[in-house]
Amino acid sequence: MRLKEIINTYQSLDEGLMHERMDMFQSGLDAIATEHLSKSFMGIKAVNDLSISFPKGLVTGLIGPNGSGKSTLINLITGLLKPDAGSIVMRERAYPFIKPYKLRKFHVARTFQDSRLFEQLSVEDNLLLAVAENKIWKGLRELKTDKYKQRLERILVRTGLLEHRFKKAEELSYGLRKLLEIGRALIQDADIYIFDEPFTGLSPKMVEEVFSIMDLLRVEAKTVILIEHNMTLIEKLADYIIVLDHGTLLANGAPKDVLKNKQVQEAYLGV
Amino acid sequence: MEYCLNIGILFCIYAMLALSLNLAVGLSGLISLAHAAFYGIGAYAVAILMSDHGMSFWSALVVGMMLNGILAFAVGKILSKFNGDYYAIVSAGLSVIVFSVLLNFKSLTHGPLGIYGIGKPQIAGYTFFSSGSFLMLALLCATLFYVIFVLLDKSSFGRTLKGLREDEELTVCLGYKTLQYKSFAFTLSAIMAGVAGSFFASYIAFIDPTSFQLGEGIFFFTMITVGGLSSAFGSIVGAALLLILPESLRFLGLPYETAAQIQQLIYGALLVLMMAFRPQGLFGKYRM
Q1: Looking at the 3D structure of chain A, how many domains does it have?
Q2: How close is the nearest chain B Cα to the Cα of A255, in Å?
Q3: B170 in contact with A at a CB cutoff of 8 Å?
Q4: Residue at B124 is within a domain
């Protein structure tokens, strides 16, 4: 009940932005697109000739049943997997494969289904690694982190990790680990954020915190790709929905239309 | 007094080695067993160039550093493709190869006979011949290594090394070309080990291949595992403990063979105990 109230509050705050967001969608600009993308594992097609696009400046909900290829698609887009065929379009240029170290250059930040953190490093170091100098020689000379201080403090406050800043990541609770991972994405001040099931396993209070973070990204007109199983959250947060099934596109469009789609209901919602 | 000075010099050499190895293993997570090889190359560069070619210690030291740098960079490129256990096995292979070369390339290394009469360093006509002066020089170098380690640890470069030690794939996703980082850390670490080897050769004045076997690499590994991974202070403590421990056996009056065997037993037991009860070592910041 409490969660629903929070969601409704945020939804009403966003009403004024809806026209602007719809204009953005109608402008037809894509942040990321795939062209005939395919990936198989031991003969099983996880992503099958998939051509989709993620609109710029909108929150796109990427949904589908377990094993529908959502995480594989994200891993292909972020270079953790190499496509068997097809290409990924980023900044209006097609790439057969995205080298993962180029994600920073492309201003893409992501989280993982199972939180991936630098376990034996402090919360601060986990965040700083996302923004500190990435060239060897410059990194050797960068002995102080003063220039990241403001950014760091802002993220620590926003994620509620301020009091845990010197703790090792491995000492954090499940929810705080999720928040740290989200914080690591946020501190990059990226153009495109990819969140892989950020709400899974969180307490209602944590869901509230993560929801407010996502909603702020909407207000800031950031491109967000959100993999999530909670349909209530998806319906309230997403401007656009892509549904995958067996590695192919089942449906896409505005949430209200997509969620009414019979095929979607059969494949995903089990209705 | 002379005995204490000698122990002090050996401590400085071991400290240099421990710091260099901790840069690879502790900071970067590169489980290298090749350090005996780089230590040996540094030692043999000084021994051959000073004894057979009349070069000064410093010129020979620089040549040794360059040789180690080139070899480590080339091998590091290959090693960078491996992780964890595989890294250790491949690096152990390098150690065995270098030992075989030192043993069998007799025209260059004099094989098992070793090289005698290796000279001492000189600066502006002053020769570091006495143990006291050599200790000062070795201490200066060990201190320099300590400072290098601390600065690396504090820098963004060091943080990245720690990141790739924890999760290389994740570090790549954050914009780092980790293969370059691994290669750089390994090369720097090898150069530092070579410098320790050069000091060792000059101090002992005689070297043969037995000082640079794979077993020595494991001994260096024990130093940092006991002292503490990813810690400059831990490296120093590890070097001191593993130097003092066998020395203390001398005072028990045991026969040489027995003492040597007890020494090996202690090293083995120390490794097992540390891994079981304190995997990060006494002052370590990282658990393998």
Answers
A1: 1
A2: 30
A3: yes
A4: yes
A136 contacts on B by Cβ (under 8 Å): 157, 180-181, 184
- Per the structure, how many domains does chain B have? 1
Asked if B167 and A80 come within 8 Å (Cβ–Cβ), the reply is no
Greater confidence (B82 vs B221) lies with B221
**A136 to chain B nearest CA, in Å?**
6
The residue among A127, A128, A136 with the most chain B CBs within 10 A of its CB, best to mutate, is A136
Report the predicted TM-score, pTM, of the whole model to 2 decimal places: 0.89
Closest CA to B135 of B23, B277, B7, B256: B7
Residue A214 belongs to some domain of the structure = no
Q: Is B170 within 8 Å of A104 when comparing Cβ atoms?
A: no
**Angle B94-B99-B104 from CA coordinates, rounded to 5°:** 125
Q: What are B152-197's pLDDT values in tens digits?
A: 999 999 999 999 999 999 999 999 999 999 999 999 999 999 999 9
* ipTM of predicted assembly, 2 dp: 0.88
Whole domain around residue B192: which residue ranges? 2-211
Is A70's pLDDT higher than 90? yes
Query: Is B110 a domain residue?
Result: yes
pLDDT of A17 strictly over 80: no
Strand ranges of the sheet holding A248-253, from the earlier edge strand across to the other edge: A108-110, A192-196, A223-227, A59-63, A240-245, A248-253
DSSP-based helix, strand, coil % in chain B, nearest 5: 75, 0, 20
Which chain B residues are closer than 8 Å to A117 by Cβ? 167, 170
Residue B281 lies inside a defined structural domain of this protein: no
In this structure, the number of other CB atoms found within 10 A of the CB of residue B177 comes to 17
pLDDT tens across B236-251, in order? 999 999 888 877 777 7
Decide if A217 is inside a domain. no
Of all residues in chain A, what percent are helix, strand and coil, respectively (each to 5)? 45, 25, 35
| Residue A120 falls inside a structural domain | no
pLDDT digits (tens, 9 = 90+) for B35-53: 999 999 999 999 999 999 9
Range of the domain at A52: 1-107+193-202+223-271
Q: Report the DSSP beta bridge partners of residue A37.
A: A50
- Give B116's contacts (C-beta < 8 A, 6+ positions apart): B51, B205, B206
pLDDT (0 to 100) of residue B258 = 81
- Is residue B232 one of the residues assigned to a domain? no
